[in-house]
Write a structure and sequence with these properties.
Number of helices: 6
Radius of gyration: 19 Å
Mean pLDDT: 94
Strand order of the largest sheet: 7-10-11-6-12-13
CATH topology of the largest domain: Pseudouridine synthase
Largest sheet: 6 strands, antiparallel
Structural class: alpha+beta
Number of strands: 13
Shape: globular
Helix content: 10-25%
Number of domains: 2
Length: about 260
């Protein structure tokens, strides 16, 4: 098992700036990397312009980058087991070879893993868990998911209130097989619209100027949202009850919750 703690990617492999991804877990066969927003795990026709993590790993492995060799990553790179929405921050599970990948994919496909997300909803705090099991399908023309009882695939998400952040509610969302945008769509359909989710909740990004009455804009730069994109992230993957891989809380999430608690009442 390697002692490396990060994998570096020079520009433009994962964007215009160099990127270093933390290694959250590594047992010699399985490896978990922390993915930031704005990056695909694998190719998706909805996002033709976004960088793809498995391709960036394969590129550096094929070139024999010492960091990859230290991690025991061969020329074929890594096999992605789990996926993560490009808008979402969190851990992604990979395998070092095809045989291990097949075993892990079988476990994943049979619902042996549990994925725990956190999100901020513009909704009241529900005393009881909210279960959504609406089947979802990819839209035929638009880059979005939809509820379909004819062509949709099985999906199930449980939402549990986890506290308040100002007038917003923090929810924990659990599922065993997350599909593309499942958390966002199920949250919207359950009356728990995710803050900043334009696609399903029609929620606009939140700016500090909307919260702070005496806000004074800076003249040297444009104001940015408190959180880029929908306010949710993948906190943890539980691998068959064997081990739990928990990713760090995004710094922007902590800052958002702090500002909401301070100004949003």
């Amino acid at each position: 098992m390697s002692t490396a703690t990060h994998i570096g990617f020079p520009s433009p492999l994962l964007g215009l700036q160099p990127v270093r991804l933390p290694v959250l877990f590594d047992d010699g066969e399985r490896i978990v990397l922390e993915k930031p927003p704005g990056i695909l795990v694998q190719q998706d026709s909805w996002y033709p312009r976004l960088p793809v993590l498995v391709e960036a790993i394969r590129h550096q492995a094929a070139e024999g980058k010492p960091e990859m060799q230290e991690l025991g990553i061969g020329e074929d790179g890594l096999w992605a087991i789990t996926d993560l929405d490009p808008e979402c921050h969190g851990p992604v599970l990979f395998a070092r070879n095809r045989e291990i990948a097949e075993e892990l994919r079988n476990s994943f496909g049979s619902g042996q893993f549990t994925f725990v997300y956190q999100l901020l909803a513009n909704a009241d705090q529900q005393a009881e868990p909210v279960l959504c099991d609406l089947p979802i399908a990819r839209h035929g023309r638009l880059p979005r998911m939809l509820v379909s009882h004819t062509t949709g695939k099985k999906a199930e998400t449980e939402f549990v209130a986890a506290g308040k952040a100002g007038r917003y509610t923090c929810y924990e969302a659990r599922t065993r097989f997350p599909r593309r945008h499942q958390i966002l769509l199920h949250a919207a359909e359950s009356g728990l619209p995710v803050l900043g989710d334009r696609n399903y909740a029609r929620s606009q990004p939140l700016f500090l100027s909307r919260l702070k009455k005496d806000y004074r804009p800076r003249k040297d730069r444009e104001e940015r949202p408190l959180y880029d994109g929908p306010a949710y992230f993948l906190r943890e993957i539980d691998l068959s009850g064997e081990c739990r891989i928990e990713g760090p809380v995004p710094s922007k999430w902590e800052a958002l919750v702090k500002q909401l608690g301070k100004y949003s009442r």
